[in-house]
Amino acid sequence: MTERHEQKLSPVALHHALEEVWGTKPGWRRLATINHNVVGKRFMLTALIFFAIGGLLAMLIRVQLASSESVFMDADQYAQVFTMHGSIMMFLFAIPFFEGLTIYLLPKLLGTRDLAFPRMSAYGYWCYLFGGSILIAALVGGVAPDSGWFMYTPLSSSTYAPGINSDVWLLGITFVEISALSAAIEIIVTILKLRAAGMSLDRMPIFAWYMLVVATMMLVGFPPLILGSILLELERAFDLPFFDPTHGGDPLLWQHLFWLFGHPEVYIIFLPAAGAISTILPVFASTPLAGYRIIVAALVSMAFLSFGLWVHHMYTTGIPHVALSFFSAASALVAVPTAIQIFAWLATISHGRPRFSIPMLHIFGFFFVFVIGGLTGVMLAMVPFDWQAHDTHFVVAHLHYVLVGGFVFPMMAAAYYWLPHITGRQPVQHLSQAAFWMIFIGFNVTFFMMHLTGLRGMPRRVFEYPRESGWETLNFISSLGSFVMAMGFALLALDFILLFRFGRRYHRNPWKAGTLEWAMPTPPASYNFASLPSVDRRADQLDPNMLGAQLAAGEGYLGFLRDDRMELLAVNIVSGEPEHVVRFPRQSYLPLLTAVATGGVFGSLLLKLYWLTPLAFIAVVLLFLCWTPDTGEKRDMHSLPIGNHVEVPPHLEAERPPSWWAMILAIVADATSYISLLFGGLFLWVSAPNWPPAVTVEIAIAPCVVIAVLLMLSALCSHRATPAGQHASRYLLICALTQAASTVGFVWLSLTSVPDPSQHAVAATVFIVFVYAGLHCGLSAVLGGYGLWRIRNGYVSARRNLDLRISNLWQEYSTIIGGASLVFPALLASLANGSAP
Amino acid sequence: MTVPPLIALIASFALWSLIFILFYAAQATGCHLVGGDNAMRMSDPYILRGVLSLCVAVASVAMLLLFLKSLRLRRQQPQQAETTSSFFSELATYVWAAALFATPFCFGGVAWLTLCGT
User: Fold this and answer.
1) Nearest to residue A118, comparing CAs of A588, A581, A524?
2) Measured distance CA(A325)–CA(A319) in Å, rounded
3) Domain-wise residue ranges, chain A
4) Which tops the pLDDT comparison, A507 or A775?
5) How many angstroms separate the CA of residue A384 from the nearest CA in chain B?
6) b/e per residue, A673-712, with b = 16+ CB within 10 A?
7) pLDDT tens, A103-148?
8) Which chain A residue lies closest to B87 (C-alpha atoms)?
């Protein structure tokens, strides 16, 4: 082993040594890179390609609607085009683009070298690429989804959509959402644990607060969608009637699950863009952000409120008035924290001396467009108005004003602001202003007209309209505007290409910002900082020029290379004091291979090769297990020097390292999904027609008691094994065996206690609850066996028992899931049997 | 016992979320139990309205009391202007105030709006 840290290296030698370990290797080995700089850029570039495809589809829509009774497309083609336009823009462009920006930017803003789980970033990227490619391939093949980007049942059910189209959406989007969930966990853990030394939470750059809130929303918002997609796919593939009202299901359950994700999604898209504005605006106003604290409070309030208004997409579905009032009030309230941010930005501009550069022009575009979108949002939050405007082009106009205003304009500002960081070149700006004005004018001409067509009654999602409707002129103007906007985007792309090719080189920090991403050479080295900074004030009021030189000279923490390993510093969540050293795994093809195997799972389901699905799933589990040897150590290290006379333990010997927090967050996401499933069962009991069911679900008590005892024994053994004492192996063996037996028990229950699950939604729900618990117990058994393997191979000691502690978290959680899964079916069955009021 | 600052920050709206779910569930279940498929055509289920209205009042008062208690506790702790604890203290006050306002604002409709009809 090399112990190069003992000798002080020159800045150039340090750069070469770090680059050797952190850098992306040439040729095919690029596929093995896990570096956040590369992965972030790949995300953004791929998202932009999808954006171009989605934009092209939008142009087709506008061509179709430019004139009445158009024969440019037929109804089927139009349905595919508008469905794919929405799906691409929401799932393949907006979310992945800000994920990419965050993956690239966040570690730099926080003063660290990478995200917490770089292999997960790479895995997430491949899942995104493969899942998105499935959707695009379906579009090319003429079998693209055609039930709208929201996939409402029964339109998307097998009765009305018998082809593969809806399956493509359900499986492709779920595949893509793996990347969103993994990114959410990574972002939260990185923000909480991998900040610069001294960066307490109150000193974080405001962008990190935004992303902390957004990632938490993603963690809770995406599981209901994933669950809903799985349930709908199960209905389509195996006739489990969760959404079929003739068998005790309810189409409204899909709407609840979808919008439980779908509305927070709007804020999930808006807030990263708002975070970019809060970062950029103070730089160009030459003054600190006004109202930092109240903005953070507004973000937290907004995050919760945004989950309390999902039904405002469902005002016309026959929900009782009083329930509508809950959601209408929350919809109106959410405007308040949004307005707080707007006023804080205006206050920042008024306090400073603004410089009107290109990013500021796009921020102006944001203000104009987003405020209009926000005001029409408040109009739509009011139930009586929504009843009039629902499903008209007014809503289309509103959502584009919100999403383009709230995301695209800020992201263009962000692109102009941070492209110099990515490329090392400044914009030449010959085309920038023309591009902006074409997009701005084109956008407003396109979408303002839709307010008018909507108010004149034009429904959305219609492929043609009669000549006498009176909508043709407005639609024609709208289509003209869309072509101006498209030319603006083409000009913008050309401007970026020119920037890459002819942009002016600069020394450092071209905008005179006070954030850490500028305290490094640009384009950045793969390791970001040659040594890690320590901050003593808010991290948007630093001096990157001075700090950059000091860090490059190795004067910060970890300004050396140890054992040829990638290392970074973890800190206390609140205070930012150094806590431990995180030692990263090496670069590997495993993320790519695991994503390919994951693609096998989804591909086999899509092609209905169901015999292949379990094999692919086992391959995924095995490949994930292959990730683990590189993360272990076979000796206790106690403490490691990190420079500046400070020593801290390695993460494997720390109490709560990033991977421990990741498991907690994964459990939160999983629990959200499970609770959504239980909510679904109870919702059907309350709301669905054809209850009480003709079939009777009777759960035998004896096997449930046996499974409960097994689960408790397993949890007890896991708990006893965790300190890695003398009998840990024995306890883990019992734990793995009891969990395996519980799995068998749940499979047995699902096969014997439940009548044919295709007969009624109650049977289907109970069946799925058992399967859900069985899967968790099975995974617990695998983790128990994994712990045993780690002990046998010397990866675990009394100090290095992190594997067992993480495993124990899951074991205890799956015991709770198992217990709830034994009680809930009995409860639902008793409610169902006595549900006749 | 000291509450972790991030938990203290989200506690008020976490409580609001719990109240939201409980009210929505209670309203839907109540309507189902009193009228089932006929609930929409029923006359006003006054017992359900009474229970829900009382719950709104209790929840609002409980939020107010918790807010006042947290304010008092914060005032008892000596704090400097620019510390992490003062930061979270100020933030938690803002967020509590927002959640306190949101509770009767969002759920007050149970007192007069149609409970089960559409």
Assistant:
1) A588
2) 10
3) 17-24+35-505, 680-833
4) A775
5) 13
6) bbbbbbbbbbbbbbbbebbbbebebebeeebbeebbebbe
7) 999 999 999 999 999 999 999 999 999 999 999 999 999 999 999 9
8) A202
pLDDT tens profile A461-493: 999 999 999 999 999 999 999 999 999 999 999
Cα–Cα dist A650/A406, whole Å: 42
Give domain status of residue B58, yes or no. Answer: yes
φ and ψ at A694, to 5 degrees?
A: -75, -30
Domain range for B31? 5-111
Q: Which CATH number fits domain A17-24+35-505: 3.10.20.340, 1.20.210.10, 1.20.1740.10, 3.40.50.620?
A: 1.20.210.10
**Mean pLDDT value across chain A:** 94
Q: Does any domain span residue B118?
A: no
Give the ipTM. Answer: 0.93
- Judge whether B116 lies within some domain: no
CB–CB of A820/A657 below 8 Å? no
Of A288, A271, A280, which is closest to residue A347 (Cα–Cα)?
A288
Torsion-angle region of residue A205: left (phi > 0), alpha (psi -120 to 50) or beta? beta
Contact A4, A17 (CB under 8 A): yes
Selected residue of B27, B95, B115, B116 to mutate for chain A interface (largest A Cβ count, 10 A): B95
* A188 Cβ under 8 Å from any chain B Cβ: no
Partner residues linked to A426 by β-bridges: A504
A680-833 topology per CATH: Four Helix Bundle (Hemerythrin (Met), subunit A) (1.20.120)
- Which residues on neighbouring strands pair with residue A640, listed in sequence order? A648
Give the rounded distance of the alpha carbon of A76 from its chain centre.
31
d(CA A353, CA A221): 40
A599-658: pLDDT as tens digits = 999 999 999 999 999 999 999 999 999 999 888 889 999 999 999 899 999 999 999 999
Chain B residues touching residue A304 (CB < 8 angstroms): 10, 13-14, 16-17, 99
Within its chain, how far is the Cα of A532 from the centroid?
28
Q: DSSP 3-state assignment of A818?
A: helix
Site of tokens 């190795």:
A554
What's the pLDDT score for residue A632? 87
Task: Round to whole Å and give the CA distance between A186 and A178.
Answer: 12
Nearest-CA distance from B48 to chain A in Å? 12
Q: Which two tokens stand for residue A420?
A: 């110099």
CB contact under 8 A, B116 and A296: no
Residue type, A690: N
Q: Report the C-alpha gap between A81 and A135 in whole angstroms.
A: 12
Token pair for A583: 């030692």
Task: For B8-45, give the secondary structure using H, E and C.
Answer: HHHHHHHHHHHHHHHHHHHHHHHHHHHHHHHHHHCCCC
Tell me: pLDDT of B79 over 70: no
Residue keyed to tokens 């589990």: A621
Domains contained in chain B, number: 1
Contact A321 B114 (CB under 8 A): yes
